[in-house]
Amino acid sequence: QLQACGGGLVQAGGSLxxxxxxxxxxxxxxxxxWFRQAPGKERALVAAIGWSGSTTxxxxxxxxxxxxxxxxxxxxxxLQMNVLNAEDAGVYYCAAAHRDSSTYGHWGQGTQVTxxx
Length: 117
What we know:
The chain is an all-beta fold. The protein is 0% helix and 52% strand. The chain is built from no helices and 11 strands. The protein has strands at residues 2-5, 8-11, 16-22, 30-37, 44-49, 56-58, 66-71, 76-81, 90-98, 106-107, 111-116. The strands form 2 sheets. Strands 2, 4, 5, 6, 9, 10 and 11 form a 7-stranded mixed beta sheet that branches. Strands 1-3-8-7 form a 4-stranded antiparallel beta sheet, with no helix packed on it. The termini are far apart.
């Protein structure tokens, strides 16, 4: 089970850090992604991190502003979001895929990010 938190209202140019905490002992065997769903748009992958933390992916629009990381000892994946803009707003979901699978089969409940101008 995944629990996402850390969303909120922030002014443009501000920062937020999202956290995704998992229950269970096998968290370190899972790749984790952060997805964003903006109003009227499909859910899209924003960033992902491999099970060991050695590999990461950030979609082009967030490169150099967002950083995904993980602490397996805390069963937690983070998404540090800096220099936020209106296009970053939406509901952020974390999801996990076993390292031997390409499918994100476990999803958190979502946390809302709102950016004011």
